[in-house]
Amino acid sequence: MTKPYNLEERAFQFAKEVRLFVKSLDKTISNYEDAKQVVRSSGSVGANYIEANESISKKDFVFRVKVSRKEAKESAYWLRLILETNKLSNEKECADLLNEAIELKKILSAIIEKSK
Domains of the chain, with CATH numbers? Predict the structure, then answer.
């Protein structure tokens, strides 16, 4: 799969893929709670990045990108937890989503560094 160059679109695709993935999880109490958390944090990556691009100052921009990075880190946490506590038939899909969350975090970190 080719990843979009546009970071807003890439974050959107990540959130969409997370939503499609969680539908495949077994219906357990822990999966329900973990899925709610990862759905929320994955969507917040892109939403906060969009807000950053609409910011009115450099300080606001950096703050919003930092929030977006925080949400990417949180998404990675929940995906790892799901990966390590389930016997998944689609384990590679979960691992790919975890890697994408880590890549998004690194990209956002680079944006923050370049904005200083």
Answer: 7-114 (1.20.1440.60)
